[in-house]
Amino acid sequence: MLATLVLAADQFSKHLALENLPLQQQVPVFGDFLSFYLVKNPGAAFSLGEGVTWIFTIALAAVAGVIVWLAVTRVRSRLWAVVMGLLLGGVLGNLTDRLFREPGFPVGHVIDFINTPWMWFFPGMSPAIYNIADIFIVGDMIAVALLVLVGVHMDGTREPRRGREEESTILGEGDETPPGGDVAGFGDEFPVANPDAGIPRDERGLPPLSEAEQRAVEREADREAGGDRRDA
């Protein structure tokens, strides 16, 4: 659906350009920021490869096929589906020109008409002239790169965050120790200390002493220790 909308928008804009713009003449729109300049491009960006148009036709067809294959077999994420759909629409827009425009199949010229004079890529070269399909192709390639960088997979899963991985140590994720059990991941190699060790059986399970009771116990222990020293 998205691919169809992009393809329709691209072809309609090219139709309007062919009907209303003079060929290879500057038509200002917003001063030096945006203008229309209609050209029929047999090559790639910056008119490179003008003599081998058929190679670009094969390349576009191959890219479209790969996108469809990925969408059918790999993509399960709605975000990836949107990106791939828009990208496919842009590729089909230029592929349609290669297949059906003059001078003929499969060496048709791509219709370019959008010119941004301030945007150039290499010193000494003229700014690129492009179309709606090119905008979606470049924009969605950037989106693909961002999705890969942030770790969003085509099936919708995400890469675990590095911080989460660093929190996990050799003792197991988060060093989690189940109550009364062994250290996670090591069986009985690291037994857990018995919390009742050293406590008389008849005193186990009793509530802890208050602060006043603890001081009284300490004073009694001191008196008994002093008595033992005198007896000695």
Automatic annotation (TrEMBL):
Transmembrane segments annotated in the record for this chain: 51-72, 79-96, 128-152
Recorded topology in the membrane: Multi-pass membrane protein
Disordered: region residues: 158-232
Record-linked InterPro entries: Peptidase_A8
The reaction(s) this protein catalyses: Release of signal peptides from bacterial membrane prolipoproteins. Hydrolyzes -Xaa-Yaa-Zaa-|-(S,diacylglyceryl)Cys-, in which Xaa is hydrophobic (preferably Leu), and Yaa (Ala or Ser) and Zaa (Gly or Ala) have small, neutral side chains
EC numbers on record: 3.4.23.36
Record has Hydrolase as a keyword: yes
Stretches with biased composition (Basic and acidic residues): 158-167, 212-232
Active site: D112, D134
One GO MF term: aspartic-type endopeptidase activity
Pathway terms, separated by semicolons: Protein modification; lipoprotein biosynthesis (signal peptide cleavage)
EC top class, as a word: hydrolase
Subcellular locations according to the entry: Cell membrane
Main location: membrane
Keywords annotated in UniProt: Aspartyl protease, Cell membrane, Hydrolase, Membrane, Protease, Transmembrane, Transmembrane helix
Role this protein plays: This protein specifically catalyzes the removal of signal peptides from prolipoproteins.
Classification via NCBIfam families: lspA
HAMAP family to which the protein is assigned, alphabetical: LspA
Family note: Belongs to the peptidase A8 family.
The protein, known as: Lipoprotein signal peptidase
Species in which this protein is naturally found: Microbacterium koreense
Taxonomic path: Bacteria, Bacillati, Actinomycetota, Actinomycetes, Micrococcales
